[in-house]
Specification:
The chain is of the alpha/beta class and 505 residues long. It contains 13 helices and 18 strands. The longest helix is centred in the middle third of the chain and has 26 residues. The two termini are 33 Å apart. The chain binds 6-O-phosphono-beta-D-glucopyranose.
């Protein structure tokens, strides 16, 4: 009989330094409140936190954007957004508690005195809702708009309460841009007040990479170049660019996903064990990995762009036909890379990375392919089933971990067949996994920066990206080179074939 409880249980969100504390009273100010991120992710995350009683007892949300709107109509829109994108059922009592503290201010921080109404409202909320001068500023605006906002926030800084600034990705456009942006921010906030967000670090399954590696004694001894043949990290999406042409034309896959989400996954897989789970210990180890990545040679980089095709049975346009995209755009919607982490643990072990939009399905996976057994005694008789062990970490969807082992087929002889040892989150814990933003917003309110990116890591990520982009200068890619709804360009398979390998998932 199973010893697990059959009903769905809640997992505590606050971990690390926060450890279950409820945050101090505060006001959360969202810049970019009329945008996609706010309605798809941020407000649904706040609702989920309110639903579980995890928000501060005294709390307010101020949405700020240039778009004209009233508080009433913003609240209504946000309620609809929670119904559409939230993970819990809409309950009037929960929503009303959250909405009572929600306000919208339409203003342009770039104009003279554009910040005044926000500042006045915050003072008023301190009195009415007891938010005590504590502020979390969520900067969900493009990098070029951040300077104006942080300068004004810096000028209006008062000594009452604490201040934290969450800065959304992309953090700059290249190394020089990231440094300049950081200078603007540090002129107004101290490093321990800055929370550079990469929502991948808020995913349960991504944090579980740390648990898997460092809470178990059996994997660490084999987690290195001697036992690992290669590592494959995939972030595949079936969605396209979703009305974000302006942003995506500038970013492409390398800046949108490789620079941040993929680098984070790679860092967690390859890092040394931190001494503890405090922010600096974890971040010190991650940055060492990113700094050790050697710039790939040109033959190890594949770029792709989708043409028209079919996804989930529906015809979809090619990238160049998407609204807002230049008809001759050379922006990449797919990338595959082979890289090396040049350090003692990983020298010579290739890490293959790939990401793309409009692929056949959505899947984020980390696959560790181990070297074959050195001398299986039944090599002659085992059959084709004698294959290397493969560990698959399914980050999403179908979150779990599985290990492929060779097992004896029952019956006469010693025929070996690959079978899976499986761990599935939903079966083991009976939980719905929280959304990454719930965890990260709560951590920022608690002042726990463990799952946020420190500037030295951001800079190391950009140095790597700049080295790849520099190789493209002056060359014209052969785009489009994969139909929407497929596995991506054939050249990504050729990259593996040259090394006598295959993508494993
Ligand atoms: C965002 C990118 O950071 O991550 C998007 O800008 C991408 O282009 C998204 O779709 C993927 O996130 P997730 O959580 O759906 O894997």
């Amino acid at each position: 009989m199973s010893t697990q409880t059959e009903k769905q249980v809640e997992i505590p969100l606050a971990s690390g330094a926060g450890g279950g504390r409820r945050p101090d009273p505060c006001a959360l100010v969202i810049f970019g409140a009329s945008g996609d991120l706010t309605h798809r992710k941020l407000i649904p995350a706040l609702y989920a936190l309110e639903y579980r009683g995890l928000l501060p007892e005294k709390f307010a949300v101020v949405g700020v954007a240039r778009t004209e709107n009233s508080t009433e109509s913003w609240r209504e829109k946000m309620r609809a957004a929670v119904s559409e994108f939230g993970r819990d059922e809409m309950r009037d009592d929960v929503w009303n508690r959250l909405a009572a503290g929600m306000h919208y201010v339409s203003t342009d921080f770039a104009s003279e005195g554009g910040e005044s109404r926000v500042m006045e409202l915050l003072e008023q909320l301190d009195k009415e809702r007891g938010t005590r001068g504590n502020r979390v500023y969520y900067l969900a605006v493009p990098p070029e708009a951040i300077r104006t906002v942080v300068d004004k926030l810096g000028e209006r800084r008062h000594s009452k309460g604490w201040v934290r600034a969450i800065v959304e990705k992309p953090f700059g456009h290249d190394l020089a841009g990231a440094k300049a942006l950081n200078e603007d921010i540090v002129a107004n906030f101290r490093e321990n007040e800055i929370f550079r967000i990469d929502h991948y670090l808020g995913k349960e399954t991504v944090q579980n990479v740390l648990a898997f590696r460092f809470a178990n004694g059996i994997f660490e001894p084999i987690w290195n170049r001697r036992y690992v043949d290669n590592v494959q990290i995939t972030v595949a999406e079936s969605i396209g660019i979703e009305n974000r042409a302006d942003f995506y034309e500038q970013a492409g896959a390398i800046r949108d996903v490789v620079q941040n989400h993929m680098m984070q996954l790679l860092a967690l897989v390859a890092m040394e064990p931190p001494a503890d789970f405090e922010a600096d210990a974890v971040r010190n180890e991650k940055v060492k990995v990113v700094r050790s990545i050697a710039p790939p040679d040109p033959g190890s980089v594949v770029r792709g762009q989708y043409g028209p095709g079919e996804v989930d049975g529906k015809k979809v346009p090619g990238y160049r036909e998407e609204p807002g995209v230049a008809p001759d755009s050379n922006t990449e919607t797919y990338m595959a890379l082979k890289i090396f982490v040049d350090n003692w643990r990983w020298a010579g072990t290739p890490f293959y990375l790939r990401t793309g939009k409009r692929l056949s399905s959505r899947a984020t996976t980390i696959v560790i392919i181990f070297r074959p057994a050195p001398h299986p005694p039944f090599l002659e008789i085992a059959g084709a089933g004698l294959r290397p062990n493969i560990l698959v970490i399914d980050v999403q969807p179908d979150e779990g971990i599985s290990l492929r082992i060779g097992a004896k087929v029952p019956g006469q002889g010693m025929t070996i067949q690959p079978v899976q040892l499986d761990f599935q989150y939903d079966q083991a814990f009976h939980v719905h996994l929280p959304e990454a933003y719930e965890k990260l917003i709560l951590d920022a309110m608690l002042g726990d920066a463990t799952l946020f990116t420190r500037i030295d890591e951001v800079e190391a990520q950009w140095s790597f990206v700049d080295s790849v982009v520099a190789q493209w200068e002056g060359s014209t890619p052969d785009f489009p080179n994969y139909p929407a709804g497929t596995r991506g360009p054939g050249s990504a398979d050729a990259l593996m074939a040259r090394d006598q390998r295959l993508w494993c998932k």
